[in-house]
Amino acid sequence: MHNLKQMAATLNVYQEHGFTSPEQLEAAVDTAYQEMRQTSGELKALETKLQGKKELQQQVLAYDYTLYDKDTLRQMDGGQLDAPELPLSTAALKICEMHDLGGQSIKYAPLAMIETLQEAAYQQMQEAAAQAAVPESTMLPDAPEQTLDEYPMPDPMLTLDDLEKCGYRDGDMLPLSKERAMELYERDLTVYAVVDGGGAEMLFDREEFDTQAAGTMYAVSREEWEESPEFDARVQDRLNHQEERERAFLSHEGDCFAIYQVSENDPQRLRFMNMDWLNAHDLSVERGNYDLVYTAPLPETGSIDGRLHKLFEQFNFHRPADFHSPSMSVSDIVAIKRDGVVSCHYCDSAGFQEIPGFLPSNPLKNAEMTVEDDYGMIDGIINNGSKATVAELEAQARGGQPISLMDLADAVHREERDKKKSVMEQLRQSPKQERKKTAPKRSAEREL
């Protein structure tokens, strides 16, 4: 009976609120729950927005300040004092305390000083911008000294003189620093320590390096170094520096020689071909088909022909250790520079034949080879210079690029000269007009 009364009361509540079934009530509860979640999200967003406004309010109320030097009016420092609750006078004292300025002599500045400070700040900004716009020094670094091919030492920082100063003078060892000696030791090369005023002691363990006295000179066998892959790689790398080495040869002050051999890329199959074969096939000897393989001083005295034969003998039977190219043979070219004059000689089946034009023999062209970047511009005129037109230079100036007034003047002069030449050429090529000769009119008196 009690349950029936409870059910009747529940039904009355449903009907009072407009519900006719439990399902309808459940749907209403779900809708109310979703609305509550949406309202909760909106409240959280509003709280976040209010918090942001609070932080903004604190920032607005904070004191921004800038410190200037009294005498020069230059800006020294600045910042923000996050204490909006402080009055202005107290905030000023606090800022002075923060920067160890003291606050006994604080005075209010007139408003007119603000304009003065603004002008000083603007001038300071202009000076900083002008200083930033100044280009860095255009001085080029010293160009590396161009030298003839040198023996690749295992330690480029040391020479044989350094080893001899330690007392070792046998000539079969090459000097090493401790760091370089340990590096070669790790590559399985035999390393020695120079001890007892010139003796060489082989090192068997890495720990032995630590037992040597400070300043000990180390060494490696010349023969073992010359058989190492690194030595061969250093020699072969010369082929990657053709132009630099050729400039070094042409600019060398003393007598010297250079050996050229047909490049590995030899589509015309010129290697080992004599001069008769070249002439029969209408082929010429050109620098582009050759590699510069070796350069060295020429200490021998005597005629050029005698020097050529000695070089042929040397590079067949007594080749230098750092010459890893084939022995001198037919089709090789030997360039000799003697007393500043360069001559090139083709190794033929019997002797040598001089070939002009392979390298510039003009001393002026030799000098040009040392400074000209483009071998296609070798014309006997040093520093060919810019050939830009007036229109091109004006376009560069309008684009904000710096131009040389000398280049502009040269361009104007060159174009005026070319214009005059063009006019004169047109006058020369224009057909000459024949002048018609007319008989003089007879006077009336003569007619009578």
From TrEMBL:
Coiled coil location: 29-56
Task: Indicate whether Methyltransferase appears among the record's keywords.
Answer: no
Which Pfam family name is an example for this entry?
A: LPD16
Q: Where is the Large polyvalent protein-associated domain?
A: 62-121
Listed InterPro entries: DUF4316, LPD16, YodL-like_dom
On the tree of life, the source organism's domain of life is Bacteria
Spell out the residue ranges making up region: Disordered: 410-448
Q: Where is the signal peptide?
A: none
- Residues forming the DUF4316 domain are 360-409
Q: Which UniProt keywords apply?
A: Coiled coil
Q: Which residues form the YodL-like domain?
A: 257-358
- The Basic and acidic residues compositionally biased stretches are 410-423, 431-448
The molecule here is called Uncharacterized protein DUF4316
Question: What is the organism field in this record?
Answer: Allofournierella massiliensis
Origin organism lineage: Bacteria, Bacillati, Bacillota, Clostridia, Eubacteriales
